[in-house]
Amino acid sequence: MIKIPKKNTNLKSFFQKLGLNKIYNESSEYTSDQKDKRLSGNPYSPDLLDLYYLYELIRLNKRITILEYGCGWSTVMIYFAIKKMKSIMKGKSFPRNYNPYQLFSLDNDKKFISISKKRLNVFSKNATEVKFFYSEVSMSTFNDRYCSKYNNHPLINPDFIYVDGPDQFNIKGKINNFTINSKPMVPMISDILRYEHFLMPGTIILFDGRQSNVRFFKANFQRKWNDFHINETGQHVFILNEKPLGKINKAQLDFYNRK
User: Fold this and answer.
1) CA 142 to each of CA 43, 190, 219, 228, 249: distance values in angstroms, whole numbers, following the listed order
2) What is the Cα–Cα distance from 58 to 79, expressed in whole angstroms?
């Protein structure tokens, strides 16, 4: 089971209570400008609703080992979520969790890693819970379908995965003259599918948009995933809904369900 955040009608109050006035103040209202933001080369302004749902999904479902594809404002939000969880759960974890209360943030652009580190430093000068990783991303195939993959993926088995990367215009190589690094194309990562069978029942994946990639996952998953779409934001959530693998995994699922 997964707990879904309630709609929030007072985002200003939500961010103020977390001490994140800076994020609220830097946000911009949605406009109907149809220019392709993917091509700007600049960081996006924070999307308050997206960040609200990201934080609340982690908090409500007590996930404590996070993998993030694509750093940004989300990195700060996840950091605050895991700090909150560590406080609520008094630092307790479940068996064989070797990376409790940690965020692994993976990006294929050193510029944006640097920006994210500076943002995080505004809120914490020693955010030991966050580990940044850089990796090039190359064209690849999965089940003979074109996609991309990170060349140097961190070794981590997370219980929550957030997908908002990589930058499709920083993807290396071509296969049969085909590349995602092109304006008419869309992001299409495959990494999670490659290690799907190592994920524990209860794992949550949150896609920030990227609906073509969502459909690619739904067409290629081999295990039992439940999913739903958050209409308010365009985000998409998967949860690995399988019976426990054994006593250790059951203890993990019991941890998530504690009151």
Assistant:
1) 30, 7, 11, 24, 28
2) 11
Burial 186-219 (b: 16+ CB within 10 A, else e): ebbbbbbbeebeebbbbbbbbbbbbeebbebbee
The two structure tokens encoding residue 130: 């966050």
Q: How confident is the model at residue 36 (pLDDT cuts 50, 70, 90)?
A: low
Residue with tokens 């985000």: 235
Rounded CA Rg of the chain: 18
Record the pTM.
0.94
Residues 6+ apart with CB under 8 A from 258: 62, 89
Residues 6+ apart with CB under 8 A from 60: 3, 4, 5
Amino acid letter for position 62: K
Residue pLDDT, tens place only, 76-88:
999 999 999 999 9
Of 213, 232, 230, 233, the closest CA to residue 221 belongs to 213
3-class state of residue 165 by DSSP: coil
Which one, of 150, 145, 174, lies nearest residue 161 by Cα? 150
**Which residues make beta-bridge pairs with 105?**
68, 132
DSSP letter (8 states) at residue 246: S
Q: Residue 51 contacts by C-beta under 8 Å, 6 or more apart in sequence?
A: 23, 73, 74, 77
Mean pLDDT, residues 189-193 taken together: 98
Contacts of 213 (CB under 8 A, 6+ apart): 163, 186, 187, 188, 189, 207
Q: Across residues 25-34, what is the average pLDDT?
A: 61
How do residues 120-157 score in pLDDT, each as one tens digit?
A: 999 988 899 999 999 999 999 999 999 999 999 999 99
**Residues 127 and 117 sit within 8 Å (Cβ to Cβ):** no
